[in-house]
Design goal:
Helix 2 packs across helix 3 and helix 2 runs antiparallel to helix 5. This protein is mostly helical. The model has no long low-confidence stretch (mean pLDDT 79). The chain is flat and about 65 Å long. It is built from five helices and no strands. The chain is 69% helix and 0% strand.
Length: 171
């Protein structure tokens, strides 16, 4: 812990000297990115015992949450492939959103749109143009919401809650 603090302090000092030298060399213009500033966040876990315990509990949940994140990525990947293959050539402009792009023109745009839908956001801009084009796409969106939002997201909350209870010794 003391070595970490010394390393961060030394890094900040070296960074400050480099920034000061750059400031004078450029005639008073700031032309240097302070790379040591993010290192200050490493102080947070050691601020007090509660912070340290919170960081430990978060680190304890990461392996299980990683598995769930991988499952969410696979589900989103599968539905993005299906969406692009079925709706790539459709005219899905969302006139009410002021956006002339189709959310399923390419795989990367479809993947981001569906990943956003997992959070419950941006539903009208993605779903309604597809439903106006073909009402049968309701099955596509319903199945994605069922698997993603109703099964995967609550499992994430359950894992975090279970590890919280285990870490704090609650029943």
């Amino acid at each position: 812990q003391n070595y970490l603090r010394a390393f961060i302090a030394l890094s900040c000092f070296v960074d400050y000297l480099l920034a000061l030298g750059t400031y004078h060399a450029t005639g008073g213009r700031i032309a240097y990115v302070r790379w040591s500033r993010p290192l200050r966040l490493l102080y947070l876990p050691f601020a007090d015992k509660a912070s340290f315990n919170s960081v430990l509990s978060i680190l304890d949940t990461l392996p299980t949450l990683g598995d769930l994140l991988l499952l969410g990525l696979v589900v989103t990947f599968i539905w993005a492939v299906i969406g692009v293959s079925a709706l790539a050539n459709a005219d899905l402009r969302a006139s009410h959103a002021g956006d002339d792009s189709n959310a399923f023109d390419s795989f990367d745009v479809a993947f981001v749109a569906l990943a956003t839908l997992l959070t419950g956001e941006n539903f009208p801009n993605v779903m309604w143009p597809a439903l106006n084009y073909e009402p049968a796409t309701a099955a596509f969106f319903f199945s994605f919401v069922l698997v993603g939002t109703i099964m995967i997201m609550p499992a994430t909350v359950a894992i975090v809650f279970e590890y919280y209870k285990r870490f704090h010794g609650l029943k």
